[in-house]
Amino acid sequence: MNAAARCNLLALVLAAAPAFGLPLAEYPEARQFIDTMAARHGLDRDTLTQALEQARIDAGILKAIQRPAEGLPWHRYRKIFLTEERIAGGVEFWRRHRRLLDQVAQKYGVPPEVVVAILGVETFYGTRTGGFRVLDALATLGFSYPRRAPFFRRELEQFFLLTREERLPPTEPVGSYAGAMGWPQFMPSSYRRYAADFDGDGKRDIWTNPADVAASVANYFVEHGWRGGQPVALPLPAEAAKFGDETLEAKYPLAELEAKGLKLPQQSIPKDLRGNVVVLDGESGPEAWLGLPNFYVITRYNRSRLYAMAVHQLSQAIRQRMEGAQ
């Protein structure tokens, strides 16, 4: 979508926003939302109404969601995350939390560098977690962004449930323009399903507690099928790009790919693995990679092959730097 089209869409969205006329809590979709929450979950109507009365429609959120970085070609996207500053920051974070990351790796089977890379890509190791109230982000996108309103209303539902469970005021949590929270940028549904209380203090704190943060990321991966001790992705010759398709899932038996003429990497790979050929836009032409099940798991965190490859390559750069410094 070009800049003019984005501006036109934003104008149309704002014209339909609750802030244009009624207070948000009185907007028809919001009233229906309150009714559903009260009937389905037993939440108090007055409490929900008061919370929504404090929410505001934010034009900055609507503008931000129309320009995701995943729309960039790989060679430009990569430069955002594979930087000296981010690699050095990952090494420093790993050193500072080495014992904790080793404990998390022992329990979950997810290597420290992968957990660290996720935090590096998501929030620069917990230093850039977003400045929007989660309530505002989810209300704005749930009631004023028709393209994905059902998804964000479901996340708003999950948000109110988690604030009840965790005894948090709905106006307190802060996160991204899309409502993602804490160092690992969990959406409310992910928080409720995967956040972990690693230190046993009775709280799942993904905003300030490194133990809960690292364990939550690792638990997310395990719950989505992470295979400990197996590679994520391996480079292929550029000509292997002809075997690529749009799938994210590693769904083809390696023997089948080999029978079709794909020359597999020399690195030892378990023969029972499945994979797919991931094709990315490199600076000098297509890049081809053998995506394995763990690569697909990373795309479950963010459904983008660009994202998964950035996490993978950042994790490898951080590990290499750590090993070289020892």
UniProtKB/TrEMBL annotation:
Active site positions: 122
Top-level taxon of the source organism: Bacteria
InterPro entries: Lysozyme-like_dom_sf, Lytic_transglycosylase_MltB, MltB-like, SLT_2
Keywords (A to Z) from UniProt: Signal
Keyword Signal carried by entry: yes
Single GO MF descriptor: peptidoglycan lytic transglycosylase activity
Protein known as: Membrane-bound lytic murein transglycosylase B
